[in-house]
UniProtKB/TrEMBL annotation:
Source species: Malassezia brasiliensis
Gene Ontology BP annotations: RNA catabolic process
Recorded superkingdom: Eukaryota
InterPro entries to which the protein is assigned, alphabetical: Mitofissin, RNase_H2_suB
Record GO cellular component, one term: ribonuclease H2 complex
Protein name as it appears in the record: Uncharacterized protein
Amino acid sequence: MVSTILAGIKHASGLSPDVERITEPNLRGFVRQFLNAGDYLFNAGVSFAQHSNYFRATGTPGHISLFGEDGLHIRQYPGPSERKCYFVLSEADARLYEVLIVRPDAPHARSWFVGHTDGVPRSDAPGAVVRDGALRILSPIDPLFVLLGLLADVDARHFYPLDDLAESAAELHARRRAASVPDGGEARPWPDIAPFLMHNAMAAHLPRLCDTQSEVAADTGCLYRLSMHKIHAELDAKRARLAQSAVCDAAPETFGRQVRKALANAHSATDAEVAAAQAETARAMVLAYCPPSVAAGWAA
């Protein structure tokens, strides 16, 4: 029970016991296993509650705040193109955001002084100093690309219930992380992958990249199997939308700049050359968010 409580504290606040302070290797390993067991039990409990008729959502989610008591909890997942990315799922609007963390070098570290205003500046309100003054820039991201990063290499020969699909993805990335750790090191697990995939807001996007099959015995009444045909169709549609001139006009300093770089002479380019540059830039941007196994098949 203690390990489950500690797991709940970690998921709610991002705080967990610092096991590196334990100098005795055997004891440190035992504590890690103890905490991992708590993570497993906590995730299993959350999964059960999400799919049980005896639980319901209560209360109104608060606004996103980086500094409030109900602060934004940022999770790290294996990202597209084998990048390590940070994502946050906003309970307020069920949208997914990619987090870019900008932190100055140590000699130039910054902190923030935050005052409590309640919407109105108050000179008598106590403030607080935030030691980590890194900037966190949140950008909406299509869940398709995050799901691809998590599921692209799961065995696509079989249909899975949602919980089995999520566990397969979690185990796959845990093995990859363990393989990347030098000899003698210990890999940290990905405790949030399974509940993230089973979240209703994420599961709703699975039919975009999976074939589905009805199954009464499954918790969700549905089985899933990764479909490269559906994935390629989604990527084609995404590329077509990005290649439109309206996108270039709306983002002249980002997408538009990349299009101009692709042209030999942006000032004298023909309409056909501009359209080709837009299509190639859109293709490159989509590929940047695709895992290698998906990118190779789609690019071909």
